[in-house]
């Protein structure tokens, strides 16, 4: 219920009465004289939408959000929405049929879903309260939204903690499943970490000014920072589940051969640098002469000079001039936060499975071991079963046994798990 202007109680549908946070939101809506039977979001962008969202800071993390969330909801009746700090939706992606239905209530890119415009909704109320929230069906103030449920969390500037926007999942009851809020919180944390890495990568290193002891950026560092700022993001090297590499600089993609991806991955994995001998031993399974490595580095440097001039390979020891984020690093960071579900979604497979380089084999083993140990220690049954569906987990008896231990006694999934265990142990 909420209070109308005369102080009388206005009854709204609910599940045995609204929660306090929803009731407070309804009160705010009535204070703004919103009508639950006729309120609709305003379309605030038309032809200028693309320009606005491409220049918004959250555009830089949309590839990450798509990898962690959007690709898993397609065909599932769910939508992933990202809005700005004012509640205006900038991206609405996911299941095609759900998008068509959502258009009827103007849950579309360009529409303003701020709480002071449409009343209670997950995107708008999460921004108002500055924390994550789940809104079920008739918890929505606007009756046209009844039948939909949603979970949303704000995304913050990683340094100032100012709200940059909001991340939302909308759909049926699965949109407010127990794991959805932690999933969105972990994805928002990953997005904030990437924004911080991008910002740090744009800052030039300080050097001592002669005779004055004053730190200032060197001319070379300033030029590098300017180039990095033009790109707008820190480079990311994707090697998980791929036989070749992909260098991503804010959406500008450069394909890499297996050999070049191997060398860059090893240098990113060992940021302190590698001697010539160590790099040769890690990069070549069959061993290689010094001249072979040098020739490959010449070709790789030439490619980087064209594709990513701000990223150079320095010598003595061999190392990268700036941090290169590996998608493998992102998986480990998510595991460290306890975001097992998001980490598993981000793990597309072992790095460069076609590479026989000893150093890449080492990275594969570290990832496999860390992922498996984290899941066995603290993951829910459904996450364990997702891992058991991967090539690495398909024959892992310990993972299946732990999933079976956690499943409720009457879960329909138990029979399939028992059958798989019997086959593996036979």
From TrEMBL:
<protein>
    <submittedName>
        <fullName>GAF domain-containing protein</fullName>
    </submittedName>
</protein>
<dbReference type="InterPro" id="IPR003018">
    <property type="entry name" value="GAF"/>
</dbReference>
<feature type="compositionally biased region" description="Low complexity">
    <location>
        <begin position="218"/>
        <end position="229"/>
    </location>
</feature>
<feature type="region of interest" description="Disordered">
    <location>
        <begin position="204"/>
        <end position="229"/>
    </location>
</feature>
<dbReference type="InterPro" id="IPR029016">
    <property type="entry name" value="GAF-like_dom_sf"/>
</dbReference>
<feature type="domain" description="OmpR/PhoB-type">
    <location>
        <begin position="251"/>
        <end position="320"/>
    </location>
</feature>
<dbReference type="InterPro" id="IPR001867">
    <property type="entry name" value="OmpR/PhoB-type_DNA-bd"/>
</dbReference>
<keyword id="KW-0238">DNA-binding</keyword>
<dbReference type="Pfam" id="PF01590">
    <property type="entry name" value="GAF"/>
</dbReference>
